[in-house]
Amino acid sequence: MWQRGLNWTAIVVVGIFGLMWVGIVIYADKGSPPWMRIVQVIFGLLLLAWSVRKTVHMLSKA
């Protein structure tokens, strides 16, 4: 039971972090070159995709 709760916590934390990462890179990071901002947005989207994939996996196990 604890393991399942910790799994959900990790999924939520990574999803929120990915969303915040993308938002900060798009709106606040004006000093980086455009290619670096694109790479950072892709990284944030990968984190979001991971959390969505894990959510679907956890819901299908239930």
Summarize the entry for a quick read:
The chain is mainly α.
Describe it.
Helices cover 87% and strands 0% of the residues. With 62 residues, it is mainly α. The protein has one domain. Helix 1 (2-27) runs antiparallel to helix 2 (34-61). The chain is elongated. It starts with a helix and ends with a helix. The chain crosses the membrane at residues 7-28, 34-52. This is F0F1-type ATP synthase assembly protein I. Keywords: Membrane, Transmembrane, Transmembrane helix.
Average of per-residue pLDDT values: 91
Strands, count:
0
- N- and C-termini, Cα separation: 12 Å
Radius of gyration: 14 Å
Query: How many strands, which pairing sense, and closed or not: the largest β-sheet?
Result: none
Run of helices and strands:
HH
What are the segments in which pLDDT stays under 50 over at least 5 consecutive residues? Answer: none
Q: What count of structural domains? A: 1
Provide the β-strand percentage band. under 5%
Give the helix level as a range of percent: over 70%
Number of helices: 2
Coarse shape: elongated
The helix-and-strand class reads mainly alpha
